[in-house]
Amino acid sequence: MLYSPLVWNICMASASPVKVDKGSEFTVSGQEEAEAIIKSMEGTYLLVDVGANLTNKKFARDLDAVVQRSRDAGVKKIIVTGTSVQSSKEALRLTRLFPGTLYCTAGIHPHDSKSWEDETVDALKEIASNPECVAIGECGLDFNRNFSPPDVQIEVFEKQVKLACDLQKPLFLHEREAHSALMKVLEQYQERLPSTVMHCFTGTQQEVKKYLDMGFYIGLTGYLWKDKSEDGVRKILEERLIPLDRLLVETDSPFMYPNIRASKLPADVKGALSERSLSFLNRYCTFQRNEPCSLPISVEMIAAYLKLKPDDIALKTTYTALKSPPRLNMQWTNLPTK
Prior knowledge:
The protein starts with a helix and ends in a 16-residue tail after the last helix. It contains 13 helices and ten strands. It has helices at 5-14, 30-40, 63-72, 85-97, 120-128, 150-167, 179-188, 205-213, 233-238, 267-271, 275-284, 295-306, 310-322, and strands spanning 19-20, 27-28, 47-52, 75-80, 102-106, 133-142, 171-176, 196-198, 217-220, 247-249.
């Protein structure tokens, strides 16, 4: 059977290491498993959700079903976001319940900056030492709500940037109405910064250009439906300011529900959404609880704005999430870097 090199590389990375049952002649090779993955992909995408808040209490009762639906929708890997010491520990615990599917981050969200204690950095370091933990974050600055005082946010953010630099773990960043202050901290560590992802980007053209100049990756969510500005995400996509090899996709579940019925969403974008993706969105997701199975809708919206095929967006963003850099490679190291 013939497959495109990109699809084959992704599926070989998704396959488990060679497994041998010494008590019999049974052997499963990486190639055989990759072929099985490709066969199971027929009619769907192969996606990585780089940011989902699966430790949120809204998922407490049916997480098994949520993860299975994501797999059925083509979301094969999910990075569970840590936003406090406790949620980071819980995110790590979930990776043990769903090995090979869930991975995690470890960090203190800017809203929770005031909870930082002397032992917090050691707790984050311990969580980050596990191979299932692929990034430091969600950390950053949020001057929109200021649930923690701005000066405390800056202090705690810088401590986490330093930790990521010391560990050379990728940074998973949050920023709202704090672009200048965020850049002031990051530029101090520019020579040491690891791969950096701007999580759930909702900023301006000027801001995205600055992040890209710094070598950062841009994470987009279902927020697309909401943006109607002349300087925001939609315009950024239409003008193709984000190179495909710097683009990542995420749901930020249970938040950022993609409201495809909104009047703000252009008719041609609505018309580009597939029945299969709509079925997952309409059946399982609401404003109150978005799920990772909605990710194909965001991919199709992004593709419509870029005037590209959604399959190409899916494959490219997945390849970017798995390759090195940005080292969100979740223990997989056999993908080429070019």
